[in-house]
Amino acid sequence: MANLNIKELPIPTYYGEEISYVNGLRYALQVFIANIKAKVQKYGIFYDRKFNFKLENYDNYELKDKFDSPHKRTIDGIKEGSHVLDIGCNSSKLAKILIDSKNCKVTSIDKSEKLENSSFIEKYISFDLDNGLPDLNYNKFDYILLLDVIEHLKNPEEFMAKLKHKTKKNPNLTIIASTGNVGFLIIRLMLLFGSFNYGNKGILDKTHTRLFTFSSFKQLMLQSGFNIRKISGVPAPIALVTGDNILGKFLLNINKFFILISKTVFSYQIYFEIKPQISTDLLLDKAASKAENEE
Predict the structure, then answer these.
(1) How does DSSP classify residue 277?
(2) Domain ranges of the chain
(3) Cα–Cα dist 88/19, whole Å
C-alpha cells in the first residue's frame, strides 16, 4: 500500500467564456434518461421528434414470420394451393412465402405504382384503398388478407361495407384480418401516467388513422355483415427486441400465458378470421340454378 491521500479538486466546466454550475449527478441522470428514450423509440414504444435521427421508410414493413404473429399464423393456416388476395401487400414478402411454401396463387393490392420483384405474383394492382376496392372477380378467392391494413384507412366502416358487397356471393371465402390492440397493457400504463405518444411503428404508429380494441374491432366486422369464425390475441413481437433466442422465447411464452388470462389486456395485436354472411342474392342465384337443373 502506498498510504497516499487522494484529494478531489473541482474543475470548472466552461460554456464559452462562462463557468457552468450544473449539478453533475442531475446532468448524468438526464443523459441516461435521454439515452434510454432514444433506444426505446427504435421499438415503437416511445416517440420524440428530437430522437428521430433519420427519415423512416414505411415501405420497409417488417415481415414477422419466424415467431408467433399475424404473418406466422396466416402462413400456417392457409391451405395448400389456395387462391389468395393480399390487400395492402407492401413489398409482398408474405406472398412470396405463400407461393413458395404453399403453392398459392396470389393477387396483391397496394397503393405503390410499381412493386419491385413482383414476377412471382399472379397479378399486382396499384390502388388507393381509401377509394374503395378495385374491380375483380372476388368469387375466385379462398382467402383475403387484411393484415395490419384497416388501421391505416380513413373510413374503415365504409371500406368493410364495400368488401362485404364484393364478397357477398363467395360463401367459401375466409378473410384474415389483424390490427393493433390499443387496449394493450403498455398503452394502458402510458395513459395512466398521462402519456399517449405516437411513434414510427407499433400500435401507435403515426400513420394509423384509427385505433381498435377487441370490442370495437368485433363490432366493425359484425356491423359490416361478416360472421366471426375466430378471435385470438397475438403476443408482442419480443423477438424483434431480444432476437430469436432463449430469452425471447421465454418472454414470448410468458406473454402467451397472460393472454390466456385476459386477451384484451395482454394482447399486442388482434387476430380475426371472418366470413361474409350469406346474401339474399346468393340464395336467389342458387334457387334459380337448381330450378334450371330440374327442368
Answers:
(1) P
(2) 70-282
(3) 57
For the domain made up of 70-282, give the CATH fold. Answer: Rossmann fold (3.40.50)
* Structure confidence at residue 117 as a pLDDT band (50, 70, 90): confident
Is the pLDDT at 1 greater than 80? The verdict is no
- SS3 state at 66: coil
Mean confidence (pLDDT) of the chain: 85
Which candidate, 95, 55, 58, places its Cα nearest to that of 75?
A: 95
What digits encode the pLDDT tens for the residues 165-204? Answer: 999 989 899 999 999 999 999 899 989 988 887 877 888 8
Rounded distance, CA 89 to CA 107, Å?
Answer: 9
Are 94 and 86 within 8 A, CB to CB?
yes
Q: How far apart are CA 222 and CA 161, in angstroms?
A: 10
What are residue 178's phi and psi, to 5 degrees? -140, 155
Residue type at 226 in one-letter notation: F
Distance CA 205, CA 152 (A): 9
Three-state DSSP state, 273: strand
DSSP string, 82-138: -EEEEET-TT-HHHHHHHHHH--EEEEEESSS--TT-TTSSEEEE--GGG------G
The sheet carrying 269-276 orders its strands as 123-126, 105-110, 83-87, 143-147, 174-180, 269-276, 226-234
Rounded CA gap, 21 and 228, in Å?
Answer: 64
